């Protein structure tokens, strides 16, 4: 896997957004062969979405042939509640770009049969041929989507009870009142995320430093579900300097040096892209996998 370290949140956001844009452009999606993108909510991806909107406004990126699947949604929160993930996605991304509403997939946390809703979500992902690139964020306890500590690393989309720590962390969006935070959610599984052909996780802030260290320096462990990315053939974590606080200096230096060498070989604009793989297959394989 790759660890890309950038100075701060803004630099991380720009890097990830540019990467997503380049991947989409390279894929050259069409109506019959859309680019399928998995998306997270939370504060981590807001800056990425801001940049993607800018790219769209500059005419550099169209969402016409992009199909999206969101990671998760609260159970029981009305769809138009300002803190529903449905509202979040339209507010921060979808309403600013040319995505076709029928190409947006967000779990319905008010479905009559929640298990069926989850099952259908997986079927819809399969029907479009799987997810090309899954973007993710993590909670301070290393959970990806709502796959709380102890979740099966093979899990699929399902109903989850939220950990107390997650409820506390998310209370900031609910007037800092933990009683207002839903305690159930629908979430893609760790297996659903890891089935994507590429996974990119954004980790920023000192409060996520321990989770980053567990993800990068320790073994695959269901108590830090993001660590499953270690098994992915094309996994990338993009973090800021603050998030590296618990990493060994040698780990940070290692990933920085490897990125530098790689950039010298294929240029910073191509880092990680398929074009890079084609031109420098051996180098890219060593670097990425
Ligand atoms: N279900 C979401 C996760 O998908 C998200 O990654 C996490 C972190 O949020 P933030 O990016 O705001 O720290 O929050 C929630 O738990």
UniProtKB/TrEMBL annotation:
Pfam families: Glucosamine_iso (PF01182)
Catalyses which reaction(s): alpha-D-glucosamine 6-phosphate + H2O = beta-D-fructose 6-phosphate + NH4(+)
Residue ranges constituting the Glucosamine/galactosamine-6-phosphate isomerase domain according to the UniProt record: 8-230
Keywords linked to the UniProt accession: Carbohydrate metabolism, Hydrolase, Isomerase
Cellular component GO terms held in the UniProt record: cytosol
Keyword Transcription: no
Top-level EC class: hydrolase
Gene Ontology MF terms in the entry: glucosamine-6-phosphate deaminase activity; identical protein binding; isomerase activity
InterPro entries to which the protein is assigned, alphabetical: Glc/Gal-6P_isomerase, Glucosamine6P_isomerase, Glucosamine6P_isomerase_CS, NagB/RpiA_transferase-like
EC number: 3.5.99.6
Protein name stated in the entry: Glucosamine-6-phosphate isomerase
Source organism: Linnemannia schmuckeri
Organism phylogeny: Eukaryota, Fungi, Fungi incertae sedis, Mucoromycota, Mortierellomycotina
Name of the gene this protein is made from: GNPDA1_1
């Amino acid at each position: 896997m790759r660890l890309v370290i950038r100075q701060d949140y803004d630099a991380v956001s720009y890097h990830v957004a540019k990467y997503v844009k380049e991947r989409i452009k390279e894929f050259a999606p069409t109506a019959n062969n859309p680019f399928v993108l998995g998306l997270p909510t939370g504060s981590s991806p807001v800056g990425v979405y801001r940049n993607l909107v800018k790219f769209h406004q500059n005419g550099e990126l169209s969402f016409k042939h992009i199909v999206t699947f969101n990671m998760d949604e609260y159970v029981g929160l009305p769809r138009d509640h300002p803190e529903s993930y449905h509202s979040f996605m339209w507010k921060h991304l979808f309403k600013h770009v040319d995505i076709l509403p029928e190409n947006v997939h967000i779990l319905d946390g008010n479905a009559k049969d929640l298990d069926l809703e989850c099952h259908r979500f997986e079927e819809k992902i399969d029907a479009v041929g799987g997810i090309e690139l899954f973007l993710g964020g993590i909670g301070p306890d290393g959970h990806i989507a709502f796959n709380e500590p102890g979740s099966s690393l093979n899990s699929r989309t399902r109903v989850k009870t939220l950990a107390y720590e997650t409820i506390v962390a998310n209370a900031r969006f609910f007037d800092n009142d933990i009683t207002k935070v839903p305690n159930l959610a629908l979430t893609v599984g760790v297996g659903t995320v890891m089935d994507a052909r590429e996974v990119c996780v954004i980790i920023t802030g000192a409060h996520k430093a321990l989770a980053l260290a567990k993800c990068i320096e320790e073994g695959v462990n269901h108590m830090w579900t993001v660590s499953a990315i270690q098994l992915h053939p094309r996994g990338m974590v993009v973090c800021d300097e603050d998030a590296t606080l618990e990493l060994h200096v040698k780990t940070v230096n290692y990933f920085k040096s490897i990125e530098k060498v790689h950039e010298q070989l294929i240029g910073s604009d191509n880092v990680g892209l398929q074009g890079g793989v084609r031109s420098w297959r051996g180098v890219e394989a060593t670097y990425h996998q």
